[in-house]
Amino acid sequence: MPNEAITLQLENGDIQIIKEDGSTQVVDAKGNVVGTQKGNQLVYTNSLVKDTLVYNTINVPYGKRFELKLSDGTNVHLNSGTSLKYPVRFIKGESRQVFLDGEAYFDVTKDARHPFLVGSNDMNVKVLGTKFNVTSYKKDAKTYTVLVEGSVAAYNKLLENEEVLLKPGNRAYFENKHLKTELVDIRKYVAWVSGELMFIDDSFGVIANKLERKYNVDIVNNYDELNDIVITATFKDENIDQVLKTFQTYKAFNYTVNNRVITITKPKNM
After folding, report:
1. What is the CA radius of gyration of the chain?
2. If you count Cβ atoms within 10 Å of the first and of the last residue's Cβ in the chain, which end, N or C, has fewer?
3. How far apart are CA 77 and CA 68, in angstroms?
4. Closest CA to 116 of 104, 107, 129
5. Residue 31 has pLDDT above 90, yes or no
6. Rounded-to-integer distance, Cα 100 and Cα 180, Å
7. Each residue of 126-161: b (16+ CB within 10 Å) or e?
8. Backbone angles phi, psi at 141, to 5 degrees
9. Is the pLDDT reported for residue 250 higher than 50?
């Protein structure tokens, strides 16, 4: 299982543990305070002038979410199992670039002279000021961007010069290594920001990945026929037992829980 604490890696490689019920200050190599954490949010200040890019990396484990306010005022919600590398302070004349492994919802401060770039494994997203969600878990090997408000351009890092422009309600995704766009119900893609899990015609395989991250569990599915069902459901405060019992109404299955490992098996009477 992944580390259960939210951690912050500083420019010198030091690791700082973020306690969600506490507060702490983030300092740079010279002892200057560059950010302040209180509870579930870490806020970076814009007061220090820096002429070189200095990066911090935040790691959010399974079962947790976290919020970050970058030095330009951009708000970032980080989902479970996510790592984001970002400058402590953006530099005048340079693009505002961050690097994502996982899932994040960005509300970007408008700044036409300094485009905001999100780099992930196979897709770059470029914006000026907007609200959008990027999902790029290396483990899932699926990257996509959903635009809520404003406009963004998505760039294919696998093929040179391939880009798509998104309108609100569009999703950019990969098909045979090429970027495609489609109109989607954006609620499904951003519900996690408010702590919800929303599934609309999703396969059990996709759902299992999301349950593992949200509840910090490992799901072993030994009942292949479950993968053929599609589920539409929304959960907020339910625990993992309640969620699985809801899924049993779609198709009967047995499961056992042992040390956060959930093993799903075919019903014995079938």
Report:
1. 20
2. C
3. 6
4. 129
5. no
6. 20
7. bbbbbbbbbbbbeeeeebbbbbbebbbbbbbeeeee
8. 55, 35
9. yes
Q: Check residue 186 and give its pLDDT.
A: 94
Sign of CA dihedral 214, 65, 138, 76: positive
Phi, psi of 193 (to 5 degrees): -60, -35
- Of 103, 76, 98, give the one whose Cα is nearest residue 86: 98
Domain definitions of the chain by residue range: 6-188, 196-265
- pTM for the whole structure: 0.90
Q: Which residues have C-beta within 8 Å of that of residue 172, sequence separation ≥ 6? A: 123, 144, 145, 154, 164, 166, 179, 180, 181
Residue among 102, 101, 72 at smallest CA distance from 87? 72
Domain 6-188 belongs to what topology? Jelly Rolls (2.60.120)
What is the average pLDDT value for the chain, to the nearest integer? 91
Residue 101 has which token pair?
Answer: 């492994």
Distance (Å, rounded) from C-alpha 33 to C-alpha 239? 39
Residues whose CB is less than 8 angstroms from the CB of residue 195 and which lie 6 or more positions away in sequence, other chains included? 65, 236
Using one digit for the tens of pLDDT, what is the confidence trace for 155-169?
998 887 899 999 999
| Locus of tokens 């198709």 | 251
Residue type, 102: G
Region for 176 from its dihedrals, namely left if φ exceeds 0, alpha if ψ lies in -120 to 50, beta otherwise: left
Per residue in 58-94, pLDDT tens? Answer: 999 999 999 999 999 999 999 999 999 999 999 888 8
Phi and psi, residue 205, nearest 5°: -60, -45
CATH code for the structural domain at 196-265: 3.55.50.30
